[in-house]
Specification:
The chain is an alpha/beta fold. It contains nine helices and 18 strands. The chain has a nine-stranded mixed beta sheet with strand order 3-5-4-12-13-14-11-15-18, sandwiched between helices. A six-stranded mixed beta sheet has the order 6-2-1-10-17-16. A three-stranded antiparallel beta sheet has the order 7-8-9. Bound molecules: flavin-adenine dinucleotide (FAD). Keywords: Monooxygenase, Oxidoreductase.
Length: 402
């Protein structure tokens, strides 16, 4: 069996297939270089984390930072750190992406071949097997292929329902500030607080994450806004701009909003961000009708892409894999296991994407009059848009983990 993609979902899928009794498992990862330093911070609902830990996909060894409250603030009528509009409980843990990937990679048994620098160009399903065709030539045939190859999945493209993700129309600027560069006074940003700095047409959320190499803390921020109409996004189907490749136009747009609408403390946080730690990601929506078809299975962002406002993309990817393992273990055949997986995960993928779209609409595309809000209106508004918190941070796994 093969897994295409060796990121969060791919590493976990290799583990799931092995646990479900697959003989030979090969992971093909396009990136040839180090993966552990990709990504920045990640917030995970503490109950979702406990479920994943119980299922044996994570453990307590990774460094994390406890988050307790999410607040919304405005510069209007506020002091150095802005004026508090309101807050809600935020029972999350934050992690750095690198240690999460490294921990999952370390869990893959030695019997699995993890091949880097292998670009799968085409996937050709047939009734008796699936052929993977590689860039530069070469083919391999497998009984089952798991697509863990992200939002532009080539495995998804080979299914009978090859949906493509739709650009949401706005971007996420992301950055991280090492703890020692955070501005004074430190008391301006309470410990455990995920702070949302509001402005017309968007917001920035910031929370502390474990520092690089597991020491101290860093600040992780994600700023959501629509690009200027003239922005050089290159196409109607834009791709990510990694650190060092963010265009001057997009940087100026971001800095202009920060200067105009942010309280001084939060302006300083953004300005303290090393240029090498700032990236831009366009946001997409995708929900496929089927997570599993015949000999093809989709997990993680290959199956569904939810805007990051619901703080559960990595959780969703790992939950897919937990359910895949359980479905395959409970079935008498691989085909039956794939059908059971599809029946359980397809509806939950759609629910998460719908919720994330609603959260994006309320916090970016059609922002309220932020400055007029107070604790009561923030609570009411949040309850309304987050579905009473039911799905925020990822829905609970409906059945106990295997
Ligand atoms: C701004 C932002 C903030 C986020 N914040 C959070 C958060 O706080 N909490 C949270 O839980 N989630 C968050 N997410 C979502 C989370 O990062 C993703 O949902 C999750 O990492 C999905 O992982 P994946 O393994 O499915 O896909 P990816 O990480 O995209 O991995 C796909 C892998 O496949 C490889 N690949 C692709 N094509 C091929 C090919 N043809 N051949 C071989 N290999 C291939 C790629 O190199 C890559 O390694 C956020 C996302 C964004 C954009």
């Amino acid at each position: 069996m093969a897994v295409v993609g060796g990121s969060v979902a791919g590493c976990a899928a290799a583990l799931a297939l092995t646990r479900a009794g697959a003989g030979e498992v090969v992971v093909y990862e396009r990136a040839a270089g180090a993966l552990h330093d990709r990504g920045i911070g990640l917030a995970v609902h503490k109950e979702r984390y406990a479920e994943l830990e119980a299922a044996g996909y994570t453990d307590g060894s990774m460094p994390w930072v406890r988050l307790t409250r999410r607040t919304w603030i405005t510069a209007e009528g506020g002091g150095h750190a802005g004026r508090l509009l309101g807050g809600v409980p935020f029972p999350f843990r934050s992690y750095a992406w690198g240690p999460l990937w490294s921990a999952l990679r370390a869990r893959i048994p030695a019997s699995v071949a993890y091949v880097q620098g292998a670009v799968v160009e085409r996937v050709v399903p047939a009734p008796d097997g699936v052929t993977l065709c590689f860039a530069g030539g070469g083919e391999e045939r497998f009984d089952l292929v798991v697509g863990a190859d992200g939002y532009r999945s080539v495995v998804r493209a080979a299914t009978r329902t090859p949906e493509v993700p739709g650009y949401a129309g706005y971007l996420a600027w992301r950055g991280a500030v090492p703890g020692e560069l955070l501005p004074e006074p430190r008391s301006a940003w309470p410990e455990g607080e995920a702070t949302t700095v509001t402005f017309p047409g968007g917001h920035m959320i910031a929370y502390r994450i474990p520092g690089a190499r597991g020491e101290g803390v860093s600040a992780n921020w994600v700023f959501y806004a629509t690009p200027p109409s003239t922005a050089a996004l290159a196409s109607a189907d834009p791709t990510s701009l990694p650190p060092g490749r963010v265009t001057a136009e997009l940087t100026e747009h971001h800095e202009g909003i920060v200067e105009r609408y942010f309280p001084p403390y939060w302006q300083d946080v953004v300005r303290a961000t090393p240029r090498s730690a700032a990236a831009v990601q366009p946001l997409y929506d995708l929900a496929v009708p089927h997570y599993g078809q015949d000999r093809l299975v989709l997990v993680g962002d290959a199956a569904s892409v939810a805007r990051p406002h619901m703080g559960g993309g990595a959780v969703k990817a790992l939950q897919d894999v937990v359910v895949l393992e359980r479905s395959l273990c409970a079935a008498d055949s691989w085909a039956e296991g794939v059908r059971a997986y599809d029946a359980e995960r397809s509806p939950s993928g759609r629910a998460v994407v719908d919720l994330a779209r609603r959260l994006g609409r309320a916090q970016v595309e059609a922002t309220p009059d932020w400055a007029a809000m107070d604790q009561r209106t923030v609570e009411d508004w949040w309850r309304r848009i987050s579905d009473g918190e039911r799905g925020f941070g990822g829905h609970a796994l409906e059945r106990p983990a295997p």
